Automatic annotation (TrEMBL):
This is PLD-like domain-containing protein.
């Protein structure tokens, strides 16, 4: 089907939105944009992110001299989408957008450049063709040939030429539909566009923003068609033409002039012929009514133009008020200026990131020594020279290779000195074509039925109800799929190709986005997707002095400022109080679906991370209030995140920082009012999550952690500030190096100074009764091996020795060993820490000689040396020099 639209269709952005809204949810494989002027910052904001989220490789090609963006504003060129520049003696002037899916192909050929004006403000004309890859109009095949032929006539980077060949191959239909022979592609690669216009017409209608100063193209069109009447649509202030020459050219036939108001630029290009039978034939595309556009080929120095000829039901000439020739003669005379007359000395067409080098494609208009400079972001003062080359004047492109560490996305430019004047090329961006390729083909991978955004989930309980049902189904299907493919998993090896490693992160995000949609992926992986709404803001630069605005108030110290880190992070969404019970029910069901189980496989890691991120969001929203039941569920979430270490190892390295950040924040929240290896219920829950997960928390990175943090003013909100999380991460690092580190930290926080003596752990403190601290040591330091520990306040000491099933206690103030059997869930802390005196036992033994029942519990500790220092004092020995019960 072919349509030419002027009002219902605004720009290729409309096509993107229509593709995205298709109920069948077909992925987009290619999104190709050609234009004369390009604004990459505009495209990134309105087109690139949308197309990439639908799976497409995005490629932009424009005239090398016509970029209107500042490189500092371009964030994703080269590593999210491909950008290249083209150059010819004339202007590279086509306006084209191509969307290629698995089955369908949509194209828009028209007049609008990929800029805010061309795709958003000007009056433009577009011809939209919708076809299929298995069957399409002949014009679809003609466009495929044009794309594949274009690099033979236009200088451009090699990888862009390869992309045009790929898109052309995908565009070419397997079967030609000849039902619309009137629809033809017009271009000037080999013959002028004028040769494709009708040779006879009753009426010719012309509208364009640029008309030859000599009006040669107007004369050529009229001489070819010999119409009875010609009508012009002009803007008195905005159309570029010379009134006298236009009136002279139009004077050979009846001429009518229509004045279009100057409120918006009439940028559409229209050549319209009405035949003797009243049928209307239009040419819509990029060609102005100028000699370079209509009368010359590319080889002859003309522009590179593209247009579509088709029959339509009505005239497309703008409906505007008629004005007389005398009025037009009074309008100001202007000359077309779509291209500067002087060619730039250096044209940089593109740069490609290879394994260890960067391949630069350029055209030089001078004989000079050229320096290749690179910058991380194009900011002033950040450019570094990376290579020097001898350039000679030529129209053909040359390729240089430079050694450079800059990654894909870095800005690059050429600099030379010409007669004491420094000349610079328009910057380009280092491109990694493989990273920009179409997203992975997902086949039958499960996915959410709808696209959900966090705002509507948290704010609308009805939407959350649908999402919860949808998510539970997805979690189940994901687990089943992973179970069925588990036996096919190949462990990661050392001989992995460099390109495969480089691209694993992109594929990982592609799969996650396919399953959950970009909104939820952004929640679990903030800032990872190519989206203009990233949580991590782009840096800005400025020239001049920058004052420190973080001034201390009266009586305030630097440490006070550091304590304000809870203000970092994104504001958590609010859940209405009346809906909180429902939200608690939903999150509990999600946790049950991802909790580790010996008989059920886990859903994929990105899904589990998303559940964790949603849990933290709801904790920050305060939906539990004073209810502590969230602790058990959050511990289960943490355990599910780290359960499958093989899956973590197989995940791309970039994902580890996000996983580590989520685990670190979860552990920090669980650690509020709780201690690792403590004896209270909250301590036990924290320990259950800490032991398998603390090493993963050390994988976090500061920039990712800041993006994951939340803040909230809700009553009952549970969240962790940056300092809290960083302390948790530091403790995790210590615990990874020293298994007892977290216990030592917890004991230190409780006022116990821990050291090791004679194979025993000794804690010094200011407590009055050392019984409970000793029980705490015997509980928290126990790792399955026999343990000896002492708690002392200097005047009184309690020694405990223990194994899995028994514990013995010696109080220096009492002087006898008391031995107790222990059965789970009993611990020394539950036996001795209740504050009800010394528990009764039938097994009471002398202190010395150390009874065999006690020695068996002490393990490798030198119990005699320990008792010599911390045992009972001032008791007389018995006659046989041994301590006895009577002596005690």
């Amino acid at each position: 089907m072919t349509m030419i639209e002027h009002t219902a269709f605004a720009s290729p952005l409309t096509l993107l939105s229509q593709w995205q809204d298709r109920p069948e949810g077909d992925p987009l494989r290619e999104f190709l944009v050609l234009g004369y002027t390009a604004d990459l910052a505009f495209l990134e904001r309105f087109a690139v992110s949308k197309a990439r989220q639908m799976g497409a490789r995005v490629t932009v090609l424009s005239d090398a001299d016509q970029q209107i963006h500042d490189p500092i504003d371009v964030r994703f060129a080269g590593h999210v989408y491909q950008y290249g520049a083209a150059t010819i003696p004339g202007a590279f002037h086509p306006k084209l957008a191509v969307l290629v899916g698995e089955e369908d192909v949509w194209t828009a050929i028209g007049s609008g450049n990929p800029t805010m004006s061309g795709w958003g403000h000007n009056h433009e004309l577009w011809c939209v063709l919708r076809g299929r890859r298995d069957r399409g109009l002949r014009v679809q095949s003609e466009l495929a040939s044009w794309l594949q032929d274009l690099p033979r006539h236009v200088a451009m980077p090699g990888w862009i030429a390869e992309t045009l060949a790929d898109v052309g191959a995908a565009l070419r239909p397997a079967e030609i539909d000849d039902s619309r022979p009137d629809v033809r592609l017009l271009h000037n690669l080999r013959v002028p566009i004028i040769d494709g216009l009708p040779v006879e017409a009753a009426e010719v209608n012309l509208a364009a923003p640029f008309i030859d100063p000599s009006a040669a193209a107007v004369r050529a069109v009229l001489e070819r068609a010999r119409p009875d009447r010609v009508r012009f649509a002009l803007q008195s202030q905005l159309t570029s033409f010379v009134p006298s020459t236009l009136l002279a050219a139009a004077g050979r036939t009846t001429a009518e002039f229509h004045e279009v108001d100057d409120e918006r630029t009439m940028h559409g290009k229209l050549i319209e012929h009405v035949d003797r039978d009243g049928r209307v034939h239009v040419v819509v595309g990029s060609a102005n009514v100028t000699s370079p556009a209509l009368l010359r080929t590319v080889r002859e120095g003309g522009n590179c133009e593209l247009a579509v000829a088709a029959s339509v039901k009505r005239s497309l000439l703008p409906d505007a008020r008629p004005v007389s020739a005398d009025t037009v003669a009074q309008w100001p005379s202007t000359a077309p200026s779509e291209r500067e007359q002087s060619s730039p000395a250096l044209r940089l067409l593109g740069a490609r990131r290879l394994d260890r080098t960067i391949e630069v494609t350029a055209v030089s208009g001078i004989d000079a020594t050229v320096t290749v400079e690179l910058s991380p972001d194009g900011a002033p003062g950040s450019w570094q020279a990376r290579g020097v080359f001898a350039a000679t004047r030529a129209s053909a492109a040359v390729t240089w290779t430079v050694d450079s560490p800059e990654p894909a996305g870095a800005a690059i430019r050429l600099v030379a000195t010409l007669e004491e004047t420094v000349v610079e090329s328009v910057p380009a961006f280092v491109t990694d074509p493989h990273r920009c390729r179409p997203r992975t083909d997902f086949g039958k991978e499960p996915r959410l039925r709808g696209a959900y955004e966090l705002d509507e989930l948290i704010g609308d309980s009805e939407v959350m109800a649908r999402f919860s049902k949808d998510l539970l189904t997805l979690l189940k299907l994901s687990a089943e799929q992973r179970a069925s493919t588990a036996t096919l998993r190949v462990p990661a090896g050392g001989a992995v190709e460099v390109q495969a490693r480089k691209d694993a992160w992109t594929e990982f995000l592609d799969h996650a986005t396919h399953s959950m949609g970009a909104g939820l992926v952004e929640l679990a992986f903030p800032g990872a997707l190519p989206s203009p709404v990233n949580t991590v803001e782009a840096s800005e630069w400025a020239v001049g002095a920058v004052d420190d605005e973080t001034e201390l108030a009266e009586g305030e110290t630097e440490s006070d400022i550091e304590l304000l880190d809870v203000e970092l992070g994104r504001e958590a969404r609010r859940v209405p109080p009346e809906a909180r019970a429902r939200y608690r029910t939903w999150i509990h069901r999600w946790v049950m679906s991802i909790s580790p189980s010996p008989s059920v496989a886990l859903p994929s890691l990105p899904l589990r991370m998303t559940v964790a991120a949603l849990f933290l969001e709801l904790l920050a929203a305060g939906i539990w209030g004073a209810d502590e039941s969230w602790r058990e569920d959050l511990a289960d979430v943490v355990r599910s995140l780290v359960e499958d270490r093989a899956e973590i190892d197989d995940s791309p390295e970039q994902s580890h920082a996000y996983l580590g950040a989520l685990v670190a924040v979860c552990l920090a929240v669980l650690g509020q009012d709780a201690r690792v290896h403590g004896g209270r219920p909250a301590d036990v829950v924290l320990t259950r999550a800490w032991e398998p997960a603390h090493d993963v928390a050390t994988l976090t990175e500061d920039v990712v952690l800041e993006a994951v943090l939340l803040r909230s003013s809700e009553i009952g909100a549970r969240l962790a500030g940056q300092a809290e999380v960083l302390a948790t991460v530091e403790l995790a690092r210590q615990a990874t190096a020293d298994p007892k580190a977290e216990i030592k930290a917890g004991l230190a926080a409780a006022g116990l100074d821990l050291e090791e003596q004679h194979g025993a752990w000794v804690a010094h403190g200011t407590f009055k009764n050392p019984m409970r601290p000793a029980a705490q040591l015997a509980t928290e330091l126990y790792d399955g091996a026999p343990l000896t520990c002492v708690a002392t306040n200097g005047a009184r000491s309690v020694t405990m020795v223990r194994t899995e099933g028994a514990v013995a206690m010696l109080d220096s103030a009492i002087g006898k060993w008391r031995v107790y059997a222990m059965r789970r869930p009993s611990t020394p802390l539950t036996i001795f820490g209740q504050g009800e005196g010394v528990p009764a036992t039938r097994q009471v033994l002398a202190a010395r000689p150390i009874p065999p029942a006690v020695a068996a519990l002490a393990g490798q500790a030198d119990l005699d040396a320990v008792l010599a220092k911390y045992g009972p004092k001032g008791r007389p020995p018995a006659k046989d020099a041994a301590w006895t019960d009577w002596d005690w």
